[in-house]
Structures are given as structure tokens and as C-alpha cells.
Amino acid sequence: MLVMGILNVTPDSFADGGRHNQLDAAVARGLEMIAEGVDIIDIGGESTRPGAERVDEQEELQRTIPVIEKIAPLIAKTDVKISIDTMRASVAEAAIKAGASIINDVSAGQSDTRMLSTAAHLKVPYIAMHWRGHSKDMNSKAIYKDVVAETISELEDRIQVALSTGVAKENLIIDPGLGFAKDADHNWAIIDAIDRFVDLGFPVLVGGSRKRFLGGDSPDQREEATVNLTKRLRGTGVWAVRVHTVKPHKEALES
Fold first, then answer.
1. Burial level of 67, CB count in 10 A (0-12/13-18/19+)?
2. Between 217 and 5, where is the model more confident?
3. Tens of pLDDT, residues 73-112
4. In what order do the strands lie in the sheet with 102-105?
5. Domain boundaries, the chain
6. Which residues are bridge partners to 43 per DSSP?
7. pTM value?
8. Closest-CA residue to 177 (of 204, 197, 206)
9. What's the rounded Cα separation, in Å, for the pair 205 and 238?
10. According to its UniProt record, which reaction does this protein catalyse (predicted)?
11. Is the per-residue pLDDT at 21 higher than 80?
12. Beta carbons within 8 Å of 158's beta carbon, 6+ residues apart
């Protein structure tokens, strides 16, 4: 199982907003993750925490592209990859040109009608997450009769749209979207049934790091629970975990 390290170059992300939103700090954090054995550095310039307002395209580009341009040469002779965490096709395109090689789209192509065709054209791995709407109102959409069945069904719809748009099957990765339009019980139900997502036949990314359903009064207090989640997912066939720290998760997977 791979470890995807989160590098939010934002002032308002829920767990680490403002810590790495200056270029030097972001690059230093990237270097730290590389030293700790990260497999993928996921760089994002727009917070998707519940209630977050969107940033404009130019701001997202200004936050992310210089960081990618600085980190990309540092990983050129390693197996480390950069992914761009974005819902905008224009940002994805610029990021791939700057040195990223994976697109991580929490909206699975629903936020930008150009995204899927752009991913198909770029011929890079594309992560499609289960999504029911933007951060400002997603909590109101956490209504399910059967969260596992409905999440799978909605993901399957996006898979078909992606494939029909030209995204190669071997480039498609799925994410059940823990915390996105889901409450704590929904998240645990998905984790308990993670094998059903793996059985869809695509690599599965799980991003539960420091989220509220893990307990604790603050994101930093949820680190131990996040590591325990990684341990729980070990051996399930999950492709990667998306986490805020690298070393504890690498150690958990190697123990």
C-alpha cells in the first residue's frame, strides 16, 4: 500500500491550513516527506473542508504551480510522484506541464466539464472521488438509505462517464470520499465494507486523515487514530492512503 502525503498550500485547510502556504515552507515540507519515504506528494491549492469557499482559478494556479516546479526536479531520479489535488481542468493541465503526473479530482469530473477530457488527453492516472457537491453545502447532502450501496452506485456512474470520455481503464483510480457528504456512521460503514470498493476492479485511495469521525477535539489529536486506520486497511487491497504525516504510516505498513 502506498502513502500519499498531503501538501496543502492553502491558508484554510482544516488540519494544516497556513503551515505550508509559503513557497519555501511548502518545498521544505516536500523535502521532509521525500526523506521519510513518501510515494506520492499530493499538492492542493483549494481547501475542500466542510463550509470552505472556492478560490478563483488564478489564485489556485499561483499557489500550486511554483511548488510543483520546485519539487519536480528534486524527485526526478526517484520513484516519488506528484499529484495535483484540483477540480479544475486548467490547473490540472498546468500542473502536469510543471511536473506532476497524477490528477486527484475530488469531484470526479462533476465540477469542471473539461476535466475528464483533459485527463484523457494527458494520459495520466486520474483519481475520481465520490462527491455530491461543493464544500459549502455538502453536509446537507449526507442522506443515504444504504451509504455503501449508494456510494458504489454513484462511483460506478462516474467510472462509466470517465471511461466513455476516454480515460484509460488502467489510469483510473477511485476514492470513496470519506467525510465528503458523509457523517461519522457513513464513514465507518464504508471502511467496514472497503473490500466492496476494491472489488470494483480499480485501485482505491482512502483519505481519512485527521477527519472528525476519528474523534479527538482537534485535527492534531487524531494522528494516532489516523495511523490506526492505516493499520486497519493494511492487507485489504487498498492502493494508497492519503495522510498528513508520512513516517508513522510507512512504519505502520512495514511493521
1. buried
2. 5
3. 999 999 999 999 999 999 999 999 999 999 999 999 999 9
4. 172-175, 126-129, 102-105, 81-85, 40-44, 2-8, 240-243, 205-206
5. 1-252
6. 7, 84
7. 0.92
8. 206
9. 7
10. (7,8-dihydropterin-6-yl)methyl diphosphate + 4-aminobenzoate = 7,8-dihydropteroate + diphosphate
11. no
12. 108, 109, 110, 128, 130
Report the C-alpha gap between 31 and 100 in whole angstroms. 15
- Long-range contacts, 26-32 (Cβ 8 Å, 24+): 26/67, 26/70, 27/67, 27/70, 27/71, 30/67, 30/70, 30/71, 30/74, 31/71, 31/74, 32/246
Please report the sign of the dihedral spanned by the C-alpha atoms of residue 44, residue 155, residue 239, residue 225.
positive
136, pLDDT greater than 90: no
In angstroms, the CA 37 to CA 169 distance is: 28
Question: What cell does 254 get?
Answer: 512495514
- Give the catalytic positions in this structure: 211, 242
Strands 102-105 vs 126-129: parallel, antiparallel or unpaired = parallel
**pLDDT tens-digit map of 182-212:** 999 999 999 999 999 999 999 999 999 998 8
> What is 1-252's CATH topology?
TIM Barrel (3.20.20)
94 phi and psi angles, rounded to 5 deg: -65, -35
Find the range with the poorest average confidence among 4-13, 36-45, 47-56, 200-209: 47-56
Taking residues 205-222, report their average pLDDT: 88
Q: Which three cell numbers stand for residue 22?
A: 509559503
Residue 88: Cβ within 10 Å count: 25
Which cell goes with 229?
486506520
C-alpha 39/C-alpha 81 separation (Å) is 6
Give the CA radius of gyration of the chain: 17
Following CA atoms 79, 249, 42, 75 in sequence, which dihedral angle do they give, to the nearest 10 degrees? Answer: -30
When comparing pLDDT for 21 and 41, which is higher?
Answer: 41
